[in-house]
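We emphasize that the prediction below concerns an isolated chain of 190 residues; any contacts that depend on oligomerization or on bound cofactors are therefore not represented. The input was used exactly as deposited, without trimming of termini.
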Amino acid sequence: MFSQKNKNLWRCHLASGKFFIETERLLIREMQQSDFDALCRILCDEEVMRAAYESAFSPDEAQNWLNRHLKRYEDYGFGLWAVVLKETNEMIGQCGLTLQQWKEKELLEIGYLFQKAYWHRGYAAEAAIACREYAFTVLDADSVCSMIRDTHIASQNVAVRNGMKIIDKAAKNFRNTEMNFFLYSAERTQ
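Result of the prediction step, given as a token string:
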């Protein structure tokens, strides 16, 4: 299972049939269409997206991204979720779980993207740790991973804070650009 200390870091709720995870400063919940503008402040921001994907998304690509995650909630019960700052009730990022291909394997990945204004405040690590605990305790996953560009040091630091270590490296093609990624992984402790 997980330690008493970690139990105090997050709680998972089902209120009015809606899922959410609560941490000290954040609510993590399913995205909805009304989150589109906040999502665009992340996905359509050139600086935010350069670190992870080399370039910003168009509004149409952002809508397709949102649609994919809404479908993932239906199909799997998880996806990237909205990260909402409790203090302001503003969606400041997204973090969650997706099934991703790595070489010939399908892995459970913790992914995260945040508005630039909220970088370097520990929100990504706080959300990622809660998603790791959710994967281990609710989904009964044996391991989780994060696939991170080899140039994205801040995201690599979040993975380390989430108890992950590099276990592999590979090139992936995204939007016709070849990029190098590290595979970070953490295993559930018994």
